[in-house]
Specification:
alpha/beta, Metallo-beta-lactamase, Chain A, Rossmann fold, 2 domains, 12 helices, 24 strands, 35% helix, Rubredoxin-O_OxRdtase, electron transfer activity, ODP_dom
Length: 396
């Protein structure tokens, strides 16, 4: 058994088999489904796990409790990777009382047909377990309508934060950040935030305001490490990301069929580098999963995109990427763009339409368009675009 502190135990599991989280986002290092057990006068389980891992999960619970019953189950988030084991759990503990808010129970009825033995809470309500007191904060749209967070007040203050402050990546033996090398965590936490939560910056800000002024010793998310040593850093990262604050770096992403559009991207990047931009990342949208590109779009303020015309439209993978960026409601960015065609010009105008109608980023420079192959004139225009983006980024 793994005790976090003061009879609060970790009973979660690791998933190293799933290739794509939510069928969308790559999991090269797996993911954890975190669940926690408070062993007090009243025993309380905080969140469950995906149903495929129920056997391992229930063994973890029994290791802590033996034959004792569980009095309460707090559901901070109804997404099935946390609530999927609920129906089976009630077979083991038929008297368990499920704690959630009204929207929790609307979803619980819809997903699992469970309506009885529930305790509805509202924002700020408390529940006494004996030596620990739970206080509930409703945090809707972080990142579902029913999401909430639970503060456990005892010898230490522990925030059970649902998907908030979570990270991709399975836990490799260690659980608490102070006992592991966290170098891998920061980019994976940013990728998790940008891919999963990033659209909901305003709700995240509202949640942070509710938590402001509360001393927190541990943050126990439903994915990734337990934060203890780095609580302030993690909260600060969420504050910055949810305000769409960025650094003065540049993401250049392109589609290419035969390498000509790729050459344009290389000249743009080189010019931006010579003009003083140090943080530049270049992605082929057909090779790099968009999950990583979106992460870096959240990280850096500058974005330059380019693609060829394809079937008298925009190259498919670029069209998909721009749709994903728009759907994540990214704000406060600079954008430039370029494109190419062999016999029908469309890509440059299509990217411009994306920015005008959906992205609403600040345009930098004039778009660069290439017919068939790179010429000295097109090369010079690419270099101009790179320099103008660099100038704008370095002024910020």
């Amino acid at each position: 058994m793994i005790e976090i502190t003061d009879k609060v135990y970790y009973v979660g599991v690791n998933d190293r088999n799933k290739a794509l989280f939510e069928g969308l986002w790559p999991l090269p290092n797996g993911v954890s489904y975190n669940s926690y057990l408070i062993d007090d006068d009243k025993v309380c389980l905080i969140d469950a796990v995906e149903v495929d891992f129920f056997v391992q999960f229930i063994e973890n619970v029994h290791e802590v409790l033996g034959d004792r019953k569980i009095d309460y189950l707090v559901i901070n988030h109804m997404e099935p990777d946390h609530s999927g084991g609920l129906a089976l759990l009630r077979k083991y503990y038929p008297d368990i009382q499920v704690i959630g808010n009204k929207k929790t129970f609307d979803m619980m009825s819809g997903f699992y047909g469970i309506r009885e033995n529930t305790l509805e809470i509202k924002n700020g309500d408390t529940l006494d377990l004996g030596h620990h007191t739970l206080r509930f904060f409703l945090t809707p749209m972080v990142h579902w309508p029913e999401t909430m967070m639970t503060l456990c007040e005892g010898q230490k203050s522990i925030l059970f934060s649902g998907d908030g402050f979570g990270s991709f990546g399975a836990l490799n033996g260690g659980l608490i950040d102070s006992e592991i090398n966290t170098d891998w965590c920061w980019d994976e936490m940013m990728r998790y935030y940008s891919n999963i939560v990033g659209k909901y910056g305003i709700p995240v800000q509202n949640a942070l305001k509710k938590l402001a002024g509360i001393h927190i010793d541990y943050i126990c998310s439903t994915h990734g490490p337990v934060w203890h040593q780095h609580v302030e850093k993690v909260v600060e990262m969420y504050d910055r990301m949810s305000k769409y604050e960025t650094s003065s770096g540049l993401v250049i992403c392109y589609g290419t069929m035969y390498g000509n559009t790729e050459r344009m991207a290389e000249h743009i990047a080189r010019a931006a580098s010579l003009a003083g931009v140090k943080d530049i990342v270049i992605y082929n949208v057909s090779k790099t999963h968009h999950s990583y590109i979106i992460r870096d779009v959240f990280k850096f303020r500058g974005l330059i995109v380019g693609a060829p015309t394809y079937n008298t439209g925009l190259y498919h993978e670029m069209d998909v990427l721009l749709s994903e960026i728009a759907n994540h409601d990214v704000k406060n960015h600079l954008i430039g763009w370029f494109g190419s065609y062999a016999w029908a010009s469309k890509a440059v105008n299509a990217i411009g339409e994306w920015n005008e109608k959906r992205l609403h980023f600040e345009q930098v420079g004039e778009p660069v368009e290439m017919k068939q192959a790179l010429t000295p004139e097109v090369k010079a225009e690419c270099e101009r675009l790179g320099r103008e983006m660099a100038l704008k980024l370095l002024q910020a």
